[in-house]
Amino acid sequence: MQALSFGVKGKVWFELGVYGDSDINCVRSLFTTWVKPRSIKAQAAEEEFEDAAPTKLHGKSSGSVLPYVGIACFGAILFGYHLGVVNGALEYLSKDLKIAENDVLQGWVVSTLLAGATVGSFTGRALADKFGRTKTFQLDAIPLAVGAFLCATAQSVQTMIIGRLLAGIGIGISYIIVPLYISEISPSKMHGTLGSINQLFICVGILAALVAGVPLASNPLWWRTMFGIAAIPSALLAVGMAISPESPRWLYQQGKISEAEVAVERLFGKERVTEVMNDLDAYSQDSTKPEAGWSNLFSSRYWKVVNIGAALFLFKQLAGINAVVYYSTSVFCSAGKVSDVAASPLVEISHVFGTTVASSPMDKQGRKGLLVISFAGMVASVLLLSISFSWNLLAPYSGTLAVVGTILYVLSFSLGAGPVPALILPEIFASRIRAKAVALSLGMHWVSNFVIGLYFLSVVNKFGISKVYLGFASVCVRCLAYSLVML
Predict the structure, then answer these.
(1) Contact 447, 172 (CB under 8 A)
(2) How many other CB atoms sit within 10 Å of the CB of residue 459?
(3) 249-257: Cβ within 8 A, 24+ apart
(4) Is 253 exposed, middle or buried (0-12, 13-18, 19+ CB in 10 A)?
(5) Which of 225, 182, 224 is nearest to 201 (CA)?
(6) Rounded CA gap, 431 and 393, in Å?
């Protein structure tokens, strides 16, 4: 186990992976009580809180949002698939494109996707506001499909990088508009549950990518098919959004009142049209304040909530989720428990399971409790991982301990640190600062993700995997302390 080298087979390169009040106590209540976002809105003294779904529906409804949530989740699946597809394919595409001995170019093949995602995440909201949610989904399908095609047919590393860049732009846009659309068509009482569905389907997409790599052992050229497969859900997303209702909120904001009523009827039923339209009207009257400038984010009035949003996204990366999963295949194979192709899917199955479990209490208990449980579990499991690589006394059990540590780490992450940060952004940022505060939070997320993806190999080669995991443990301790003190 200690002789584990960096150039392992089956490395995983992905992120596991949308506003405040001037009084931080309102945010503290959000995390520590069983209050719904609309209740938080009532607590704000000077700034309005915008519930991501302004519909408070009671009783039965003849409409249904679930089919359209399902269509939107093709974007989440594609997000996960493009992140995870390079895991099994990297070794084989590197040989095919003659970069097997060049770790730098391999790093760029991986990280270019994240660079594109950074661009997409900063432009997604603007596109959605200009063209509407459903049309933005259809536009987003273009770089997703073209990127998949270029990667599948690439005869040079340059073409592969361009394809990954386009796919990255696509998943960056998806990262914004999938939760945005779902939140705007979902009843408020289901906001947390349906919001976590986005994270769940990201996990499903990653798992699908890992399972898609199973034939690689017998067919080295299968990596091209793996990339090409991503064009199918891209097409399904575009077609599905052509028949999906537009966000009633966006239509109302554009002055398309009659179209908004039609969309509300499709989503919630004819009997709810008046109720939802009244909510939209109330929200519109509350959203007339001018947008704050960038300097306002750092004022005493907003800094605490902005700090929380940015810090939680940064913690997701620095706590080591990517790095732990990078070594899942090697760890499992060293344990002699499973084959190469089954190792990483097993880890991702635990991620899917944890995300599914987390969706149930999301609307019943505060976000803070989930984060504390999540970071505490990550501390214990990453310490176990570090020990499994370094303690000679435990050498006979090192493989088993490493397997257990990896599974527990991913499970712990998926319970809180994974889904909660994206879910709480619509709940803690006031509308005046929302767009810029979200951009700052996502910027922290993608930039740190890109840097880790690009330099992680060099850090492990220099310091060793055990010390790196110990460093992640110290970060997780800080994340736990931050959650206890700041939230």
Answers:
(1) no
(2) 16
(3) 249/54, 249/184, 249/280, 249/283, 250/128, 250/129, 250/132, 250/133, 250/184, 251/132, 252/277, 252/280, 252/281, 252/284, 253/284, 254/132
(4) middle
(5) 182
(6) 56
Distance between CA atoms of residues 20 and 46, nearest Å: 10
- Residue 12: helix, strand or coil by DSSP? coil
148 Cβ partners below 8 Å, 6+ apart? Answer: 82, 163, 167, 227, 228, 229, 230, 231, 234
pLDDT of residue 334: 55
**pLDDT tens-place string over residues 99-110:** 988 878 888 898
Nearest to 116 by CA among 9, 15, 225: 15
* Residue in this structure with the two tokens 């050229």, named with its chain if needed: 221
Considering only CA atoms, which of 166, 204, 107, 57 is closest in space to residue 454? 107
Verdict on whether the full-model pTM lies above 0.85: no
Helix (H) or strand (E) holding 348: helix 340-359
CA distance 227 to 208: 12
Which residues of 113-152 form beta strands (DSSP E)?
Answer: none
C-alpha 31/C-alpha 423 separation (Å) is 12
Distance between CA atoms of residues 118 and 443, nearest Å = 7
Asked if pLDDT for residue 335 goes beyond 80, the answer is no
Residue reference for tokens 């803690």: 428
Query: How far apart (Å, rounded) are the C-alpha atoms in residues 296 and 441?
Result: 15
Q: Which residue has the tokens 């098919």?
A: 225
Q: What are φ and ψ of residue 296, in 5° steps?
A: -65, -25
First to last CA, the chain: 39
The C-alpha atoms of residue 329 and residue 86 are separated, in whole angstroms, by: 13
Where are the alpha helices (H) located in 269-419, listed in sequence order? 273-286, 303-318, 321-326, 328-335, 340-359, 367-390, 398-412
List the structure tokens of 46: 């000077």
Of all helices (H) and strands (E), which one includes residue 454? helix 434-463
Distance CA 52, CA 178 (A): 13
Is the CB of residue 424 less than 8 Å from the CB of residue 367? yes
Helix (H) or strand (E) holding 278: helix 273-286
* Dist CA 255 CA 271 (whole Å): 22
CB 78 within 8 A of CB 237: yes
Of 2-16, 140-154, 338-352, the range with the highest mean pLDDT is 140-154
Q: What are the C-alpha distances in Å from 336 to residues 333, 397, 466? A: 5, 11, 20
What angle, rounded to 10 degrees, do the helices at 434-463 and 303-318 form?
30
3-class secondary structure, 79:
helix
